[in-house]
């Protein structure tokens, strides 16, 4: 298991001002960080990748579809092309950063709804786009971990039944799913069964409390989550995801308007120690 933390707790765009907190993350004993990549240039992420590597931290990435005008699922060819161009930019940045995984909901615009579930045409267009991404990722030596979201944030991918079927449709070894305990806590009746159903398609495990605060302080049964993950043979990236005050890039979908942890030191140390202890005990 490689333990990481999603840097959305610091902000939506990571720059030099965040380096002191990242240095603390490294000192506490995290193995890697998951960098939000929502804007900027590959040159910026190449610089950041070098700084993270110097701290001994591995790199991962989380990205989104920014708006409906760059939707890779759209039936409008010009909009869909902008969406495909955005997915290509995501991979440009990942390769500059040195990401081992690209996670996040880069399937549909967050907070955008059509009034129904995904159509067969949308699923087919998405699978075609993500298969192309997976082929490029395989050449680059990294993996994709597409994130499901709860029904209040997207209509496209909510449950592990949907996620497993979608991964099977993409049908590429570099393509998998980012399992997120917060979203699954809303959508699944049984997290252990949901994880077993996903099986080897789980490329990243997002550890996120039911209130998106400090891991271990809430209602999610992480002992069962970790036992099940290990039973499926998962030994990949386990990533803390917690939110501070609203992140502008995500606020419209996540509805996070208040800090959900008392301070960074508490979040970093308590979450790290809890996961290391519970994973070992699982």
Describe it for me?
GO terms for molecular function: isomerase activity. Its EC number is 5.3.1.-. It is an enzyme of class 5 (isomerase). This is D-tagatose 3-epimerase. With 282 residues, this protein is an alpha/beta fold. The protein has a single domain, classed as Alpha-Beta Barrel (TIM Barrel), CATH 3.20.20. The protein is 44% helix and 14% strand. It has 10 helices and 8 strands. The radius of gyration is 17 Å and the shape is globular. The two termini are 12 Å apart. The model has no long low-confidence stretch (mean pLDDT 95).
Summarize the structure.
Residues 23-248 form the Xylose isomerase-like TIM barrel domain. This protein has 282 residues and is of the alpha/beta class. The chain contains ten helices and eight strands.
Gap between N and C termini = 12 Å
Order of strands, main sheet, comes to: 1-2-3-4-5-6-7-8
Give the name of the CATH superfamily.
Answer: Divalent-metal-dependent TIM barrel enzymes
As residue ranges, the low-confidence spans are: none
Write down the CATH class. Answer: Alpha Beta
Helix count from the secondary structure assignment:
10
Please state the second-level CATH architecture.
Alpha-Beta Barrel
Structural class by sheet pairing and helices: alpha/beta
Sketch the major β-sheet. Answer: 8 strands, parallel, barrel
Q: Tell me the series of helices and strands, N- to C-terminal.
A: EHEHEHEHEHEHHEHEHH
**In percent terms, what proportion of residues is strand?**
5-15%
Helix content bin: 40-55%
* Global shape: globular
Strand tally is 8
Protein name: D-tagatose 3-epimerase
Domain Xylose isomerase-like TIM barrel: 23-248
Pfam families: AP_endonuc_2
InterPro entries: IolE/XylAMocC-like, Xyl_isomerase-like_sf, Xyl_isomerase-like_TIM-brl
């Amino acid at each position: 298991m490689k333990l990481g933390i999603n840097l959305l707790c610091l902000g939506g765009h990571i720059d030099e001002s965040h380096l002191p907190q990242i240095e603390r993350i490294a000192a506490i004993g995290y193995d890697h960080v998951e960098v939000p990549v929502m804007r900027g240039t590959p040159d910026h992420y190449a610089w950041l990748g070098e700084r993270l590597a110097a701290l001994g931290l591995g790199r991962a990435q989380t990205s989104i579809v920014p708006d409906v005008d760059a939707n890779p699922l759209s039936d409008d060819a010009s909009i869909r092309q902008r969406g495909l161009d955005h997915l290509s930019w995501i991979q440009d940045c990942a390769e500059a950063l040195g990401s081992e995984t690209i996670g996040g909901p880069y399937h549909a615009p967050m907070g955008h709804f059509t009034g129904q579930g995904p159509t067969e045409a949308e699923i087919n267009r998405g699978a075609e786009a993500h298969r192309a991404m997976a082929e490029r990722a395989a050449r680059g030596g990294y993996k994709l971990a597409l994130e499901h979201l709860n029904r209040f944030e997207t209509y496209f991918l909510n449950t592990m039944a949907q996620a497993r079927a979608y991964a099977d449709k993409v049908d590429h070894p570099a393509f998998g799913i980012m399992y997120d305990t917060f979203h699954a806590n809303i959508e699944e009746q049984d997290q252990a069964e949901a994880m077993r159903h996903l099986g080897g398609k789980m490329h990243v495990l997002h550890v996120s409390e039911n209130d998106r605060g400090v891991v271990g302080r809430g209602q999610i049964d992480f002992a069962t989550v970790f036992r099940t993950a290990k039973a499926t043979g998962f030994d990949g990236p386990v990533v803390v995801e917690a939110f501070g005050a609203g992140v502008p890039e995500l606020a419209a979908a996540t509805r996070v308007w208040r800090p959900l942890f008392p301070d960074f030191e508490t979040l970093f140390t308590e979450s790290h120690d809890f996961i290391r202890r519970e994973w070992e005990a699982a």
